[in-house]
Amino acid sequence: MWSLMGIGGLGFWFRRWDTSAYLHSWCSVPCPSRLSLSRTYSIKSSLIGSATGLCLGQCCRIKPLSCKCKLGRSSQPPPDSRQHFSASSSASEAVLTAQSDIRKLFVANEKIGVLLLNLGGPETLDDVQPFLFNLFADPDIIRLPRAFRFLQKPLAQFISVARAPKSKEGYASIGGGSPLRQITDAQGEALMEALCGKDIPAKVYVGMRYWHPFTEEAIEQIKKDGITKLVVLPLYPQFSISTSGSSLRLLESIFREDEYLVNMQHTVIPSWYQREGYIKAMATLIEKELLKFPKPQKVMIFFSAHGVPLAYVEEAGDPYKAEMEECVDLIMEELEKRGMANPSTLAYQSRVGPVEWLKPYTDETIIALGQRGVKSLLAVPISFVSEHIETLEEIDVEYKELALQSGIKHWGRVPALGCEPTFISDLADAVIESLPYVGAMAVSNLEARQSLVPLGSVEELLATYDSKRDMLPPPVIVWEWGWTKSAETWNGRAAMLAVLALLVLEVTTGQGLLHQWGILPPLP
Ligand SMILES: C=CC1=C(C)c2cc3[nH]c(cc4nc(cc5[nH]c(cc1n2)c(C)c5CCC(=O)O)C(CCC(=O)O)=C4C)c(C)c3C=C
Ligand SMILES: [Fe+2]
């Protein structure tokens, strides 16, 4: 059941633009009144596809035989990510002159927007329960069988009310709210300045999935501003159905219902974990923290990613786990290049609910590492680029305590990227590289349709992942007798079924605890 204007006029137009609370003001760096049209750039990232048959990246990994991109056409076996990374890093390999594309964008009097998608977090303790309601009401977070979809909101209400006290404790311990909005706003500002510094003036918007500023609010502002070309950039390095997928699905539904948006050209950068700038920025942060240990070379690098239910990966084809593993490999490879040969491991944290999540679990792994005699551990949060409750509370407090209890003597934690300049500059490059493809993919590029993570419209993207919009089948569980994980899972399911039955009774009879407590409105 569980399953998350002319060239000269452009500067004028940008200077005229209003600012608003959740919209980033124009860059303080003076924007060039003329764009450098001799600019060329190389395809550094495998995210970029092109109508000229250059590398679409993911397609040659997923469909090596049908792939027509440069790397995929090679007589070599399908390139793995490492080859991809280094090959795509080489400017001589795939240089695309963007002059004509950039000119087209600007001569046509376009207004460019970048929409950063993120999760959102409660800003005060009073926000916690409604934030949790929004999260659990998301069918990409809790997937109910079709027949039970009407129960999504009552169930979300029930779970959010039940979970709120524990969550509030967590948020109280990190200062009474999530820092996510502030950090994402700062990232938006920094990205806008980086883009401006690279001669691409664009306006950056923040759209959160579960709290303010909601995606709908950002879209309203995008419409008011008359944006004509939009780059959608989820702030999750790796794609998951439960994160970027959910935000993109929402965006798709907003686009479909709106004539302006249907006609606004856009492109999506679905995931960017393999980008050179991101990998290097992560490696630099890790290197810096390693040097704080008494014996840096002996430290185990412990990547801790936010988990997802196993069924997302095994049944629904969520690429999250594969992208995560590839990302860790790329970071470790970069560290090796820098002369660091530390051991490393990857585990998954923050599981919620009664089903099996991606393994190994972070807590169990910490205990096992302690038992194996590991003495120095450097935790690296890997699935998110901002500090948030799960870094500040779960890792810094809970996991640190567990590690020390498990015999680990030296503990460190790598900070989240935030506004780290190499990282922000790389995000700006990702946006710039995607500009020639704004609006182009949906109509012309067959390769984009074949790729696992196409750089195309939201609709195509979702169609690729989740075309049938099926519900997730239940995760595969091997039955064992006794007080085991499997028993816990089944107990959890039985409890959820009981909750569902009670909810059905409440909703149909209008009587019960939820009505008494005023959680559900009385029947008309
Ligand atoms: C890549 C990152 C994330 C994935 C994947 C993800 C999946 C996922 N999350 C829940 C349930 C909860 N998540 C909560 C908070 C939260 N989740 C992420 C990131 C991912 N979630 C972040 C960055 C945050 C923190 C935001 C903040 O306020 O700082 C919460 C609320 C906190 C709590 O009560 O623990 C819940 C609940 C599920 C079920 C899921 C996959 C299906
Ligand atoms: Fe989460």
TrEMBL record:
It is found in: Plastid, Chloroplast. It is an enzyme of class 4 (lyase). Pathway: Porphyrin-containing compound metabolism; protoheme biosynthesis; protoheme from protoporphyrin-IX: step 1/1. One of its GO terms (molecular function) is ferrochelatase activity. Its EC number is 4.98.1.1. It comes from the Eukaryota. Its main location: plastid. Keywords: Chloroplast, Heme biosynthesis, Iron, Lyase, Plastid, Porphyrin biosynthesis. It catalyses: heme b + 2 H(+) = protoporphyrin IX + Fe(2+). GO terms for cellular component: chloroplast; mitochondrion. GO terms for biological process: heme biosynthetic process. Pfam families: Ferrochelatase. HAMAP family: Ferrochelatase. Belongs to the ferrochelatase family. NCBIfam families: hemH. Catalyzes the ferrous insertion into protoporphyrin IX. This is Ferrochelatase. It comes from Triticum turgidum subsp. durum (Durum wheat).
